[in-house]
Amino acid sequence: MEHILEGLPQDKWLEIIFNASQGLSERELTRMLERQAAMEILLEKRLGEMWEDELDYIVKSEESSEEIHHRVQDIAIESMGNILTRNE
Known about the structure:
Layout (H helix, E strand, L loop, with lengths): L8 H11 L2 H26 L3 H10 L1 H24 L3
Helix pairs in contact: 1-4
């Protein structure tokens, strides 16, 4: 059981996505794509056409890299929870 808690959540998420049933993985990946699409619409409405430039700046910014890393791990944990609580 201890090995489950070792490593980065992002790595565990990939393991779960690849090993969960196709239906569960499909639903979770579709949910994530829909959420990303909604966020892109929101960004475009709030920042106009320049949102992609702003996003590129943040992604490439060294000062944001740690915050991005932590957010990725948080999203991975949330997504794992979504999959594991719906285990078929």
